[in-house]
Structures are given as structure tokens and as C-alpha cells.
Amino acid sequence: GGGVIGDVTHGLDRVGRLVYVASVPRPLRDTAVEDPPSHPPDLSHILFPDDKTCVLDDGWWLTGGDATTLPTDVIVHLHEHRRRPIALEAMLVPPVAEVWRTVPTTVLLGRTDDAVGPEMRSWAISHLDDVRLVDSDHFILWRQPEVIADVVLEREETVSWSSNRR
Q1: 92 with 123: CB under 8 angstroms?
Q2: Are 95 and 28 in contact, with CB atoms under 8 Å apart?
């Protein structure tokens, strides 16, 4: 997930590029010139089975909202492969590094993604070099996988850090 890719790549020499999908990298508190806007989380779609874990509520997000408009094969797959719990700490811990400041980074955001929101999209566009807005909601992964594949397959020299493509 977008919230952890900078942390898991921190200190690795062979990372050529980060690609955030429907997510925006977070600055460290002590280095942020301008913090991204606060986007209060909507917890109505998250279950807390105990005090140490959380999991997406499949019943909520597969039966209501934008997810119900996903292709049938995707909905079937998601029903057959339920979301797995993660450590609650993984959702709450601040990043350990700002790898996105030193490694070429592309951010793909849906134009109508309520999970990211217009203020966060605006912050990303003004603070990150390669932000691309996709005609999608939060489910870019399932609605436009070819866009993600194209970005991943781009050659490094074609990615300009100062492009700020939209």
C-alpha cells in the first residue's frame, strides 16, 4: 500500500522508482515545509477485531458505494479473497523516511477519489514532481490497471522529475 512503500524501500540501493496508486506520500513531521491538508479518515468501512488489528469491512465496501460498479469478475474475486487484517500500528505510525524525495516517484490519483480528496490532490500536485490524475475514483487498480502497468513499464529516462504531469 501507498502508506508503506517509502518505508519498505528505505535504505535499498536498487529502487529505481516509486509508484503510488490512489495514495500520496507523507512527509516527516520534522522536515515538512508545509504539511499536507488534514483529511479525517472515514472509519465506517474499517473493522477492529481487537485492539491491535484492523481490516476493511468487505460487507460495507463490496455492497455499497463505488465498489459495486467494479467489473463483475473483480467483485467475484474480491468476494472470494477477503481482505486480511493488518496491525493497527501500521495505519498509525508516521513514515520513517521520505524516500520519495530522493527516488523518482509517480503518483496516480483518481479525479473523483473521495478517499484522497481534492485538498490532498491539490497538495500533491503542488509538492510532488510527477502527479497524474486519472479518470477514476479510488479503485484505479481495478478500473484502469493498464494505466498502472504503463507507468511501471516506463523507462527511467522518460520520467522527468520536473514534469508535474496532470
Answers
A1: no
A2: yes
Which one, of 164, 139, 160, lies nearest residue 62 by Cα? 139
Q: How far apart are the first and last CA of the chain?
A: 22
C-alpha distance from residue 134 to each of 21, 123, 156, 157 (Å): 10, 16, 21, 22
- What are the phi and psi torsion angles at 100 (to 5°)? -65, -15
| 105, 142, 61, 92: CA torsion to nearest 10 | -20
Residue 72: how many other CB atoms lie within 10 Å: 7
Mean pLDDT by 10 residues, the chain (166 residues): 75 86 81 56 79 85 74 86 85 79 91 86 90 92 93 68 43
Residue 29 has what pLDDT?
Answer: 64
Residue 136 has a pLDDT of 92
Residue 163's pLDDT is what?
Answer: 44
Nearest-angstrom CA–CA distance, 24 and 33: 16
